[in-house]
Predict the structure.
Amino acid sequence: MSREFKLWKIVLILFFTLSSSTYHSNGKLIMEGSATFDSSGFTKLTNTSKHSYGHVFNSNPVLFKNSSFNFHFHFGIVPEHNHSGTHGMTCVLSPTRHLPGVSSDQYLGLFNKTTDGKTSNNIIAIELDIHKDEEFGDLDDNHVGININGLRSVISAPAGYYDDNDGKFHNLSLVSGKVMRLSIVYSQPDEQLNVTLSPAEFSETPLKPLLSLKRYLSPYIMEEMYLGFTASTGSVGAIHYMLNSVSGPEVDYPSFDISVVPTLPLYPKKVTDKTRIVLAACLILAMTVAFVTSLIGFFFYMRHKKVREVLEEWEVQYGPHRFAYKELFNATKGFKEKQILGSGGFGQVYKGTLPGSDAEIAVKRTSHGSSQGKSEFIAEISTIGRLRHPNLVRLLGYCRHKEDLFLVYDYMPNGSLDKYIYRSDKNENQERLSWDQRFKIIKDVASALLYLHQEWVQVIIHRDIKPANVLIDQEMNARLGDFGLAKLYDQGIDPQTSKVAGTFGYIAPEFLRTGRATTSTDVYAFGLVMLEVVCGRRLIERREAKNEEVLVDWILELWEEGKLFDAAEESICQETNRGEIELVLKLGVLCSYQAESVRPDMSAVMRILNGVLQLPDNLLDVVRAERLRGQPEISMGMLLDMNSMSTLPFTNSFISHGR
Ligand SMILES: *[C@@H]1O[C@H](CO)[C@@H](O)[C@H](O)[C@H]1NC(C)=O
Ligand SMILES: *[C@@H]1O[C@H](CO)[C@@H](O)[C@H](O)[C@H]1NC(C)=O
Ligand SMILES: *[C@@H]1O[C@H](CO)[C@@H](O)[C@H](O)[C@H]1NC(C)=O
Ligand SMILES: *[C@@H]1O[C@H](CO)[C@@H](O)[C@H](O)[C@H]1NC(C)=O
Ligand SMILES: *[C@@H]1O[C@H](CO)[C@@H](O)[C@H](O)[C@H]1NC(C)=O
Ligand SMILES: *[C@@H]1O[C@H](CO)[C@@H](O)[C@H](O)[C@H]1NC(C)=O
């Protein structure tokens, strides 16, 4: 079969199966998840449901083996909020027309945690990604990428196009709600895949592609490949449209180009918004009546004004996230005791289901008499309301009712990390985490801390890192929660002195001495958490062997005896993991070092965990001084010893705190 003939065939298949007229009648397309046809004839890959995904696949294979291909399609993404939505869509070539077991959110309905990155996938996808996922190295929240077998793009670029006339780059916003065109061209002789994005109004594809990948794709392409589209949503909604306009080379075939670019429907308003509109309409009516009867009108006006003034500035600033008390009351079945997930110093946490959306939430309620009152609440809101990271528990909103304050978070069905790592009668049947899961959790927490310490505009100190504050989501990703103690301080300004708070055992020695929280005090606690995760036990536990009671001392003892590996929980001990386990144990010890200046910062920790930076070989000598732990002050001689660390290759980056 000649290459040309194959190309014909591809185009014909695309023509007949994907043109809008044949779409409906012959049922040639396979839809899964939330994908449907819109009444206007577009294919909607996702609907307003959160954390969902949709697929549409051509039911016939398109034979791509050893051939060039060339097609384009139109698409548009309508976000829930102005220029903000999740998670993105892909155009995919897959050896199967089903993608079983895939996940929503960052997995784009394309992979799941286990299948992501597997070479056996044989999947080539072009992602139109509207969310920055740090774990896949995304460059921003508006990019196009070429993905082979995984979500980490082989090559990616911010969405936009190059002007044919002057070669200038113009940005395009994928979530603008506007229709855009994507052209995908693979030349087999040149072994080059070009991807070009352009506004739908353009009649010609821009000459300079947005992405150009020089790679021989045949090894990834099976004899039979299916063409499909996937999309997913996360906690912010977005409707992903694929316009039924896929086609092959325009030169030879009737073009599907849309002569009049259609306007996509607006994102459907929530029911609550409708109620608000009705209320607003009533108000306007009342005002009109009031205008006629000016006295009453004046009275109404004054009252309205008064109500407005009662709103505090911070409430106006973070207005969109405000929940009605009734909503939360209904969601938690009237704050029933049965709904309580846990309680802490700050108040109780209730499980809830938002009426109308089935979205599960966790509602933190601060009790009336709590010593930590409104100011903490406001601090927490202003901090986490604006933080976005896959490894942080998302704050969805808040509510104030009488003397009670409420914070609404994403519900984490798998609870907190302590349940997984500590053995107790209560969780005897709890499945033990594998090493891969543990290592991932450690990296997740590290990534969240790095974000808080160094990647956010302000330095944020968590101040209460411990397993109970690490939550596990549905996909077994770790997410850091409870920012109740977080105190902000601006870059460059001395950390504020504040009253000692935190959890016994995880408090760094210098914090006890000075009451100053720094990023380094977080690193200290994180070091201990790493050790607990590897060893599957608490920092201090009653043990038959007295020397095993204090975890850190025991680990140091084993290390000195050259038996460090024995510290790890038995169920995860395998020779293949040995390197990683020892690395994490050593790093944990280094992070929880008594002297603050020796602890690495989070970017160094991250690089060590990722194997980019090495721990020094003579770390044990340095850490041996740690055996003097428990003595009141570190001696001068030891300090000199530590200073000599500056000759070690890692020190400069290690000891730079802040940015
Ligand atoms: C979205 O699609 C899913 C799957 O078909 C369906 O269960 C859900 O009800 C839809 N949501 C809305 C809001 O239409
Ligand atoms: C594709 O090319 C490879 C090597 O160039 C060859 O072995 C294989 O037979 C070709 N397959 C088809 C279907 O042409
Ligand atoms: C929507 O967001 C864009 C950019 O973020 C801004 O330029 C525009 O004014 C916003 N529109 C509305 C109606 O808020
Ligand atoms: C991912 O999907 C595969 C099937 O393709 C399934 O066997 C596996 O359990 C799924 N993993 C997760 C974490 O959902
Ligand atoms: C495109 O967007 C990026 C990031 O939003 C911005 O830095 C850059 O200046 C923009 N370029 C143009 C030409 O508007
Ligand atoms: C891909 O783009 C490059 C320019 O980056 C161009 O030289 C090449 O001809 C293009 N290939 C195809 C098949 O369009």
User: Anything to note?
Assistant: The chain has four domains: 3-247, 269-318, 320-411, 418-652. The first helix runs from residue 3 to 18.
